[in-house]
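Re: that backbone. Tokens:
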């Protein structure tokens, strides 16, 4: 399956799904011109900017939209900003960081992996 972190933001009776994958993280990095480890460090030091938060939120919402095969327009930075305005910085940041952390600490399981000599361990 690969690196994957999922979260939900409960926003006034609706659920906003977030999905972070390597591609979603790369999308946020590209938009911000900053590495994910640097962004996570900023978060841990309470230095995550609104710009960074909005980019991460947009990337997670868009990846979830695409994963669900939902039609419609792509999620924009304005959509992310509107959600931050509605729910607040702290409410939005925690589920994002949990999902991003899941991607960054991902390690494949040993189940089903081929060992070095080429034999299947099962």
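Recovered sequence:
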């Amino acid at each position: 399956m690969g690196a994957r972190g999922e979260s939900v933001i409960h926003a006034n009776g609706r659920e906003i799904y977030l999905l972070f994958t390597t591609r979603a993280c790369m999308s946020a990095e590209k938009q911000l011109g900053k590495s994910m480890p640097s962004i996570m460090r900023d978060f841990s030091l309470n230095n995550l900017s609104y710009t960074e938060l909005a980019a991460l939120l947009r990337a997670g919402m868009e990846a979830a939209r695409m994963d669900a095969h939902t039609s419609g327009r792509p999620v924009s930075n304005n959509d992310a900003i509107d959600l931050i305005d509605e729910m607040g910085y702290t409410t939005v940041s925690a589920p994002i960081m949990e999902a991003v952390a899941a991607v960054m600490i991902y390690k494949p399981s040993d189940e089903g992996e081929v060992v070095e000599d080429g034999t299947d361990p099962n």
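Residues 4-104 form one domain. Residues 114-122 have pLDDT under 50 and may be disordered.
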